[in-house]
Specification:
Number of strands: 9
Shape: globular
CATH topology: Rossmann fold
Largest sheet: 7 strands, parallel
Strand content: 15-25%
Helix content: 25-40%
Distance between the termini: 46 Å
CATH class: Alpha Beta
CATH superfamily: P-loop containing nucleotide triphosphate hydrolases
CATH architecture: 3-Layer(aba) Sandwich
Order of helices and strands: EHEHEHEHEHEHEHHHEE
Structural class: alpha/beta
Number of domains: 1
Length: 265
């Protein structure tokens, strides 16, 4: 059976490419021949795919922005019949009509969201468009949220999780802010293709995500932090250790008067 997984969030920088590429690499490592469909003009997934070597498990790349000469767009966009998992990396700033196009035949829709006020507002609009314009029903269990680049035990993380719980859309994975994802992006490998104890914690955090994609299993009982062996947190690299937040910038002083620049409404 072929599954189509669409990674979608109209806000740029939410981590769509990180999730799409690591999903493709996971399925490749499991022997389930995946296709990685890059619909973003920035072609980040395509560049990641180009870094993979012939010795790595194969991933079929598809992109309308990377069509070879003398090849039609429809031929370049074809999915080989042996593909078992299709992962779609969608662009930012998509229209309401594109919501319908991208999700029409999707078996699973993953919405990554970062822990920030701007991202929380953006994901609210995204989910509203999926429900109202793309006509996705909550009861279909096709939509799920992935909390991305989070740091536990922070106020913004707790605020994010309370907000996501209020949307009544399942949060099926919580991925920490880790240098392992940067290494994966730079080398064309996936998190699950990396060997060693330092990657075990991050790999475990994908268990609930894969369970939902494959079986529709929604994590029960709170935040879906994967269970890891005691002491595994000590395996984190030093660069992953949380540091104190820098002090806030001082107020801007104009002609001796303090002026605070407020963000756009």
């Amino acid at each position: 059976m072929t599954l189509k997984i669409v990674v979608l969030n109209p806000k740029g920088g939410s981590g769509k490419t990180t999730i799409a590429t690591n999903l493709a690499a996971f399925y490749a490592s499991q022997g389930q021949f995946p296709a990685l469909q890059d619909l973003d003009a920035q072609a980040s997934s395509t560049r990641w795919l180009a870094k993979r070597t012939d010795t790595m498990a194969p991933i079929h790349g598809v992109s309308p922005f990377n069509v070879p000469a003398k090849v039609t767009r429809s031929f370049a966009m074809r999915i080989p019949p042996e593909v078992q998992r299709i992962i779609v990396d969608t662009p930012a700033a998509i229209s309401k009509q594109q919501f319908i196009e991208f999700t029409r035949d999707a078996d699973r829709i993953l919405i990554p969201v970062l822990p920030s006020d701007i991202d929380i507002q953006a994901v609210t609009r995204c989910i509203a468009d999926l429900l109202l314009h793309a006509k996705i029903q909550r009861s279909e269990n096709r939509i799920a949220v992935v909390a991305n680049r989070v740091k536990r035990n922070t106020l913004i993380f707790r605020s994010l999780m309370r907000f996501l719980d209020s949307l009544k859309i399942p949060v099926i994975a919580v991925l920490r802010d880790s240098q392992n994802y940067i290494r994966a992006a730079e080398t064309g490998v996936g998190l699950h293709e990396m060997q060693g104890a330092r990657f075990r914690v991050d790999q475990a955090h994908w268990t609930s995500l894969i369970d939902w994609i494959e079986h529709g299993v929604v994590p029960a009982g709170g935040t879906p932090w994967a269970e890891v062996a005691p002491g595994d947190d000590a395996l984190h690299d030093a660069v992953d250790t949380p540091v104190a937040e820098p002090p806030a910038d001082p107020p801007l002083r104009l002609f001796g008067v303090s002026a605070f620049i407020k963000p756009d409404p």
